[in-house]
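Teaching soon. Invent one.


***
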Amino acid sequence: MPSDDKQLVLRANTFPSVADGLDAYISAIGDIPTLTAEEEQALAYR
């Protein structure tokens, strides 16, 4: 299972940069618009 271990390490190493990018994106666009309960249900049943 060495290939699985490699995947986990790769994922762990890339995650912080993804989180930083997400933080930057969120601060760039402002608050994330929240869905109403109806919109969430509509998406769930798609």
Remarks:
- Residues 14 and 33 are 26 Å apart (CA to CA).
- The chain has one domain: 2-44.
- The mean pLDDT is 69.
